Amino acid sequence: EFTSKKITNKLVQQIQEPLVLSSGALPAWCEELTHSCPFLFPFETRHLYFSCTAFGASRSIVWLQTQRDVTLERQRAPGLSPRRDDPHEFRVGRLKHERVKVPRGDQLLPWAMQVMRIHADRKSILEVEFQGEEGTGLGPTLEFYALVAAELQRKDLGMWLCDDDVDPTNGPSLDLGEGAKPPGYYVRRASGLFPSPLPQDSTAADRAAQHYWFLGVFLAKVLQDNRLVDLPLSHPFLKLLCQGEVVN
């Protein structure tokens, strides 16, 4: 155990300063220690620091107000009615929501790539509707993320390493949200998904590079909007994504 309780408490104290956090004026040692010596802090503290600093000032302000609301709600006596907004309370930093419509089926992945290409540098919350359907809000948005995560696991994309000893003609069908698919439609490995080695200067490598770019933007948006997706990446690949070393 290399965690330091004193440094952890000091970092949490810095995060709890609204003016410092919202203005991006945290001391330089906060960034340096969390990146170069993450073992000094427990995971909860590192996740807390990431959540309130990684997405810009607007998200930091909203995070502060959300934490304040949670604290006030916990301090309320049990059995009382839910807290109502104080008309004299001044709130800033309401996040903008942007809504897009996408189709289901075979065109979902190309449309999702186009949406993320346009939305990659924006700080607003992404909401998704499906064409020809009336549902809006959180439900369709979460379904969109789940369906795109399933599309990224397709074998025909050529992104992931496959087990040669698996017979694609045998085995149960698999449903990841778009209906039952035949065996071999998705890449399923016990150790998780790992990039497939592809010939350099080939069309397959260029196509895979576009999908990996989309994967990065997609996961970044998942983290930014606080969504969850089921994407079973392998531990070595996660280490590479986090700039760690993979030991054979």
UniProtKB/TrEMBL annotation:
* Signal peptide, first to last residue: none
Q: Which SUPFAM superfamilies match?
A: Hect, E3 ligase catalytic domain
**Pathway the protein takes part in:** Protein modification; protein ubiquitination
- One record GO biological process: proteasome-mediated ubiquitin-dependent protein catabolic process
Q: Which top-rank group of organisms is this from?
A: Eukaryota
HECT domain spans which residues? 118-248
Q: Give the EC class as a word.
A: transferase
Which Gene Ontology CC terms are recorded? nuclear speck
Any GO molecular function: ubiquitin protein ligase activity
Is Transcription among this UniProt entry's keywords?
no
Q: Which Gene3D superfamilies match?
A: Hect, E3 ligase catalytic domains (3.90.1750.10)
Does this entry carry the keyword Transferase? yes
PROSITE patterns per UniProt: HECT
Enzymatic reactions: S-ubiquitinyl-[E2 ubiquitin-conjugating enzyme]-L-cysteine + [acceptor protein]-L-lysine = [E2 ubiquitin-conjugating enzyme]-L-cysteine + N(6)-ubiquitinyl-[acceptor protein]-L-lysine
Keyword set, alphabetical order: Transferase, Ubl conjugation pathway
**InterPro entries registered for this protein in UniProt:** HECT_dom, Hect_E3_ubiquitin_ligase, HECTD1/TRIP12-like
Its Enzyme Commission number?
2.3.2.26
What family is this protein classified in?
A: Belongs to the UPL family. K-HECT subfamily.
Output the PANTHER family linked to this UniProt entry: E3 UBIQUITIN-PROTEIN LIGASE HECTD1, E3 UBIQUITIN-PROTEIN LIGASE TRIP12
What does this protein's UniProt record list under function? E3 ubiquitin-protein ligase which accepts ubiquitin from an E2 ubiquitin-conjugating enzyme in the form of a thioester and then directly transfers the ubiquitin to targeted substrates.
Name of the protein this chain belongs to? E3 ubiquitin-protein ligase
Please spell out the taxonomic lineage of the organism that makes this protein: Eukaryota, Metazoa, Ecdysozoa, Arthropoda, Hexapoda
